[in-house]
């Protein structure tokens, strides 16, 4: 048996989570989740309508107590992507609020209403460490999203390694506004505090004012965010003394999901005296590395491997790079108890993702003399990191090609001061004199996939550059317009 939530089993009147007006102590969370767990224990798998609310936290905890794998659903997912996820994961029910407006694609599934005020008997965890806990869908560079099966073992190992690196304890109160349908917001941002016996304060939606309030007068000690959030915080510091005081008093500021620009590191440190810590992980691996709490400022570094994680850099031919010189670039491969179990229904993709028992991340990096890792880019050119999301270009290209006005399409990423990277669509229109507009194509993609996958820039071409095999040569596209 693997107990993910010792504090939940012990029970107390300590605060566990707060989402706006909804606040639950550990006793109240155990009772609400216990009531729901009793209703879903025979459901096989459950889909969770993962809104940024206490309902999502209660639903996922209930599934984990019941030993039933949970499939978090992005509420803004388009119809095609949702249909794929449901067809692939085959959940028996969907967990949602009574007033949640669910899309037509979920109509065939029975809705089990999540009530955060429900009070049932506490449920003890009985599932084993290798039991699937979550199935989180991640976009690859081509094709539909793959379901990453995360075991209870992987979740516990990764959270405990972070606790070691960050001195994370039951006294910490975590503040964040991250979505709850991926690893950063759900596993680290909700399950992390609950495993430690601490508390989480979720802002619902990100705002600089919300961060200042919860870290200032709200008692928050830790802040999790993505670079876009920290960029907006950095922009506000000069005019917001309360924000400066709030950040200055925080014990730990953590940025993840993409690289935080050095300029934003420097602005935050200069104004507050606090260092933003970066860490590195993936859906398939959870967390691999982190700068440790109390370390000197290390802009650009994601730190050293976490406890229990082995990391190596390899050449294209698989030769391991031994140098710690800050210059020798290789692909990151990792192994350890933090790794996922498999891609759901994809033994071929699972096998291809590993070199023996080493997971191929596709990320390129160098190692510094002190063992710190600095990521320099993707092995592939088709993964875009925008606003904290990792987005596959291939699925956006496929969505664009479904538009009647698009003959050919390619998608790339370009540097963006706010988002990290912005999505750029290169389009060959059917009618060159009347091409589809940028807003029309952005709405089209958002409707099929999700709003954060829409192109921010559309550029029209007479033809896409291709090689003799017909493959689009993205490197031959015109250079980025950094001001467009």
Sum up the structure in keywords.
single chain, 484 residues, alpha/beta, nine-stranded mixed sheet, five-stranded antiparallel sheet, 13 helices, 26 strands, 27% strand, globular
Walkthrough of the structure:
The chain is of the alpha/beta class. Helix content is 29%, strand content 27%. A nine-stranded mixed β-sheet has the order 2-1-10-9-11-12-13-14-15, with helices on both faces. Strands 16, 17, 19, 20 and 21 form a five-stranded antiparallel β-sheet that branches. Helix 5 crosses helix 6 (183-196) and helix 7 packs across helix 9 (241-249). It starts with 5 loop residues before the first helix and ends in a 24-residue tail after the last strand. The mean pLDDT is 92.
What radius of gyration results from the CA coordinates?
22 Å
Gap between N and C termini, in Å?
55 Å
For the sheet with most strands, the description reads: 9 strands, mixed
Overall pLDDT, averaged?
Answer: 92
Which strand order spans the largest sheet, edge to edge or round the barrel?
2-1-10-9-11-12-13-14-15
Shape: globular
Strand content: 25-35%
Q: What is the share of helical residues?
A: 25-40%
Give the structural class: alpha/beta
What's the short story on this structure?
This protein has 13 helices and 26 strands.
Secondary-structure map:
Blueprint: H1 6-10, E1 15-19, E2 22-25, H2 26-40, E3 46-49, H3 54-66, E4 70-73, H4 79-89, E5 93-96, E6 111-113, E7 132-138, E8 146-151, H5 152-166, E9 173-176, H6 183-196, E10 199-202, H7 208-216, E11 222-225, H8 227-236, H9 241-249, E12 252-255, H10 262-272, E13 276-282, E14 286-290, E15 304-305, E16 310-314, E17 330-335, E18 342-343, H11 347-352, E19 354-355, E20 358-367, E21 373-378, E22 383-386, E23 389-392, H12 393-401, E24 406-416, E25 420-429, H13 438-448, E26 457-460
Helix pairs in contact: 2-3, 5-6, 7-9, 8-10
């Amino acid at each position: 048996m693997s107990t993910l939530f010792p504090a939940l089993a012990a029970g107390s009147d300590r605060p566990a989570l707060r989402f706006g007006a909804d606040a639950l102590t550990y006793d109240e969370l155990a009772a609400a989740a216990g009531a729901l767990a009793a209703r879903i224990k025979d459901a096989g798998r459950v889909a969770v309508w993962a809104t940024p609310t206490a309902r999502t936290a209660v639903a996922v905890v209930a599934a984990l107590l019941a030993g039933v794998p949970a499939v978090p659903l992005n509420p803004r997912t388009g119809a095609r992507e949702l249909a794929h996820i449901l067809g692939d994961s085959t959940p028996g029910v969907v967990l949602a609020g009574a007033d949640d407006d669910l899309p037509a694609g979920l109509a065939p599934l029975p809705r089990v209403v999540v009530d955060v005020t429900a009070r049932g008997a506490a449920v003890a965890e009985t599932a084993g460490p290798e039991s699937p806990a979550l199935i989180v869908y991640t976009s690859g560079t081509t094709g539909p999203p793959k379901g990453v099966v995360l075991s209870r073992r992987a979740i516990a190992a990764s959270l405990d390694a972070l606790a070691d690196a960050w001195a994370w304890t039951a006294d910490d109160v975590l503040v964040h506004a991250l979505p709850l349908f991926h690893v950063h917001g759900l596993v680290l941002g909700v399950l992390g505090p609950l495993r430690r016996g601490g508390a989480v304060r979720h802002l619902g939606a990100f705002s600089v004012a919300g961060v200042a309030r919860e870290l200032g007068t709200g008692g928050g000690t830790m802040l999790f965010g993505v670079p876009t959030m920290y960029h907006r915080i950095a922009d506000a510091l000069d005019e917001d003394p309360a924000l400066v005081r709030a950040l200055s008093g925080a014990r730990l500021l953590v940025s993840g999901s993409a690289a935080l620009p050095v300029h934003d590191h420097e602005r935050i440190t200069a104004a507050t005296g606090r260092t933003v810590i970066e860490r590195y992980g993936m859906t398939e691996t959870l967390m691999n590395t982190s700068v440790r709490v109390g370390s000197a400022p290390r802009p650009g570094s994601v730190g050293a491997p976490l406890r229990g994680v082995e990391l190596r850099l390899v050449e294209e031919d698989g030769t391991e790079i031994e140098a710690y010189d800050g210059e020798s670039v290789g692909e990151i491969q990792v192994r350890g108890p933090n790794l996922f179990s498999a891609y759901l229904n994809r033994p071929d993709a699972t096998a291809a993702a590993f070199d023996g028992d080493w997971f191929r991340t596709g990320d390129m990096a160098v190692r510094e003399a002190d063992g710190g890792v600095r990521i320099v880019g993707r092995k592939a050119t088709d993964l875009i990191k925008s606003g904290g999301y990792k987005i596959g270009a291939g699925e956006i290209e496929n969505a664009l090609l479904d538009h009647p006005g698009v003959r050919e399409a390619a998608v790339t990423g370009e540097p963006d001061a706010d988002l990290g990277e912005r999505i750029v669509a290169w389009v060959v229109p059917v009618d060159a004199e009347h091409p589809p507009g940028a807003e029309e194509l952005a709405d089209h993609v958002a409707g099929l996939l999700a709003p954060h996958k829409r192109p921010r820039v559309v550029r029209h071409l007479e033809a896409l550059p291709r090689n003799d095999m017909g493959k689009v040569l993205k490197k031959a596209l015109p250079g980025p317009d950094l001001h467009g």
